Amino acid sequence: MLLGRATAEGTRCYSERHRKDCVPDHFRESGDLIVSSIGIGTYLGEPDEQTNALVTEAVIESVRRGVNLIDSAINYRYQHSERSVGKGIQRLVESGEASRDELIICTKGGFLAHSNHSQADSFYQQYVERSNSELNMTDLIAGQHCIHPEFLREQINGSLTNLGVQTIDVYYIHNPEIQLSEVAPEIFYNRLRAAFEVMEEAADAGKISAYGLATWHGLRVPPTANDHLDLARAKSLAQEVTLNKEDRFRFIQFPLNMAMPEALIAPTQKLGEEQIPVLEAAYRLGITPIASNSLCQAQVVGKIPENIASACGDDLRTDGQRALQYTRSAPGLLTALVGMKAIEHIEENLALTAVPPLGRKNFQELTHLIVGVLKSMHRGSDNWTFDVSNLSYSSGIPLRA
Questions:
Q1: Which pLDDT tens digit goes with each residue over 332-388?
Q2: Measuring CA to CA, which residue among 99, 82, 79, 68 is closest to residue 2?
Q3: Cβ contacts of residue 215 below 8 Å, gap of 6+?
Q4: Vertex 180 angle, CA 152 and 380, to 5°
Q5: Could you tell me which of 234, 244, 254 has the C-alpha nearest to residue 332?
Q6: Which of 24, 61, 374, 394 lies 20 to 30 A from 161 at CA?
Q7: pLDDT for 173-186, tens place per residue?
Q8: pLDDT for 372
Q9: DSSP per residue over 272-319, as a string?
Q10: CB burial class (10 A; 0-12, 13-18, 19+) of residue 258?
Q11: In sequence order, which residues have a C-beta less than 8 Å from that of residue 212 and are 6 or more positions away?
Q12: What whole-number percentage of the chain has pLDDT above 70?
């Protein structure tokens, strides 16, 4: 087990060591940590030894090239991703190429992590059937998701073992909006409050440093949607749990890319009397946002119109770089996650560490072009029902110069 966690001193040393290869704006501050604006994701791939080896090598190579945020989840490839990440981190530390306090290690819990065909049967046998269990089958949603305190405690412990670390830097409750497919909002937020109690308990015990919500639709859909998540309400629950002392609910994660810009432009969150996009809501609530799916699972590659490609700048040679550059340049965003296994993709994506993010004017112009394309397509940006006809770029977040 690797002792320690990411620290201010460790992440500062990491950024200074990579100063000669990375532009200063590649690194950003989050609390007292210094974090790379690109992070490595570990979602896709088969649960086999060949993929395990690729993920481990990708983690090592990414850290060598200026990435110090690593993202995983206990259910990714049925726990193989976490274990592959753990091996990569162990090798980096043993070789002296990185230290534990330089790396921000993130993972998620909430989904069953078994490879069995009948996950409901596995859930019953592993949790409900135990004589001392407080879990019921009604705690399992959609046959795969649970945020009961007992379940989350076991998932945290399982992730610590898989990753081989003493402390997880950011622990997310994974896609909690799935719960709203089967339970009423009041029941859901009561469950979320109980989950936050577990997170604060784990932080007090040194098992995690901070926690958050890793979402798909929840923070980007309109308030009228059944699976809408109210970020301000979630933050208030965390404050209730800690009796208004400083809580550790500090991060959110959601998709943001050229085809899915809702987090930037769609007014899905209510603060006071205002309806604002989730990126702006996070900024006002003091929550740090991280983007997933930066390349839209490579669906934008080869499909970026010429006018948008030109607006990305002359420094970029591929659609993958253009898409990643757009996401990492979003105002208020800490890190853009990108899944990488092949060395050619790592080289392509991480060439951006030597390129400054887009400035204020270029980013706004590019966003207007993207919104125009989406409007002309007359559809939601990832095939769910959402009216983009009235979207426009308007954010109260201070943009980078």
A1: 999 999 999 999 999 999 999 999 999 888 898 898 888 888 777 655 444 433 444
A2: 99
A3: 175, 176, 177, 229, 252, 253, 254
A4: 120
A5: 254
A6: 61
A7: 999 999 999 999 99
A8: 83
A9: TTEEE-HHHHHHHHT-EEEEE-TTGGGTTTTT--HHHHHHT-TT--SH
A10: buried
A11: 170, 171, 172, 173, 249, 250, 251, 252, 253, 287, 288
A12: 93
CA dihedral 229, 233, 238, 241 (to 10 degrees): -120
Using CA atoms, how far apart are residues 213 and 229, in angstroms rounded to an integer? Answer: 10
What pLDDT shows up at residue 10? 98
Phi and psi at 180, nearest 5°, equal: -70, -5
Q: Are 27 and 36 spatial neighbours (Cβ–Cβ below 8 Å)?
A: yes
Q: Letter for the amino acid at 107?
A: T
pLDDT band, very low/low/confident/very high, at 110 (cuts 50, 70, 90): very high
Single-letter code of the amino acid located at 335? T
CB 51 within 8 A of CB 80: yes
The torsion angles phi and psi of 257, rounded to 5 degrees, stand at: -160, 180
- The enclosing H or E element of 24 equals none
User: What is the DSSP code string of 166-203?
Assistant: S-EEEEEEE-GGGGGGTS-HHHHHHHHHHHHHHHHHHH
Helix, strand, coil percentages for the chain (3-state, nearest 5): 45, 15, 40
Spatial CB neighbours of 401, under 8 Å, sequence gap ≥ 6: 359, 360
Strands 38-41, 33-36: parallel, antiparallel or unpaired by DSSP? unpaired
Is the pLDDT score of 96 beyond 80? yes
Q: What is residue 122's predicted lDDT score, i.e. its pLDDT?
A: 81
Please tell me the predicted confidence (pLDDT) of residue 116: 66
How far is the C-alpha of 231 from the C-alpha of 277, rounded, in Å?
Answer: 11
pLDDT for res 130: 80
User: What is the value of pTM for the model shown?
Assistant: 0.93
Q: How many residues does the chain have?
A: 401
Residue 1: partners with Cβ closer than 8 Å, 6 or more residues away: 160, 164, 165, 166
- Supply angle C-alpha 43, 45, 50, rounded to 5: 130
- Torsion angle of the four alpha carbons 132, 138, 141, 144, in this order, in degrees rounded to the nearest 10: 40
